[in-house]
Amino acid sequence: MKNLTLIIPAKEESGSLPSVLKEVEFLECKKIVILHETDLETINSIKNFDCKIIYQNKKGYGDALIEGINNVQTEYLCIFNADGSFDPKYLSKKLELCKERDYVFSSRYLKDGGSEDDTLITKIGNFIFSSLGNILFSLKLSDILYTYILGKTQSFKSLNLESLDFCLCIEIPIKAKRMNALYLDIPSYERKRIAGFKKVNEFRDGFKILLGMLRFFFKIR
Questions:
Q1: Mean of the pLDDT values across residues 73-93?
Q2: Half-sphere exposure of 154 (CA within 13 A, CB side)
Q3: Strand 52-55 relative to strand 150-152, pairing
Q4: What pTM was estimated for this model as a whole?
């Protein structure tokens, strides 16, 4: 996996990030952690790990991922959350599948997938947004809001991503589809987060994602 970089957005994740880095410590891949330089508790919690730290210039989950993507130098990259919910056991399979594709998306809703972190509200929301994505953009994805995505670095960079918030989760597949990228989704099991709290507000961020989806449909056709 020397040709892979994990980009790990980590806002106030001192309770979970050390365990995540410990779990992937045996993997021969690069690790980039993106956070704010004022988040001293998280920074101090990982000072003994072999990872590169990048400080965000702006705010937001999307901004963290864009900063990470722009700093990757390996052939492949994978978005990897700092809360422990993403299982690294899927990485080798995703990397192998990506040799013939631009992206490999993960899905909690395919057979053999699942989630310990999903609520009824988030499950319904994911179903609605995935259905809208398939209807409006012909994405053929079953879990559009799940960002456990591995892909070729150059393919990610060619998307010229702009969303600084959670709208990035829909911007990636929509732009990938419009650029005729090759991709597929495979089942993945989402584990319960180790510590801390969810950064997503179901209603506020759901509304932003809905507006973002409509904006992509009407303005970037």
A1: 97
A2: 4
A3: unpaired
A4: 0.94
Q: Summarize the confidence of residues 119-141 as an average pLDDT.
A: 93
Place of tokens 């009824």: 120
Domain ranges of the chain: 4-219
Banded model confidence at residue 178, pLDDT cuts 50, 70, 90: very high
Give me the pLDDT at residue 122, please: 86
- Cβ atoms of 8 and 80 within 8 Å: the answer is yes
**Strand ranges for the chain from DSSP E:** 4-9, 30-35, 52-55, 76-79, 103-107, 114-115, 150-152, 183-187, 189-190
Q: Is domain 4-219 in CATH 3.90.550.10, yes or no? A: yes
Tokens 């991503």 belong to which residue?
Answer: 161
Q: How far apart are CA 145 and CA 117, in angstroms?
A: 13
pLDDT score for 103:
98
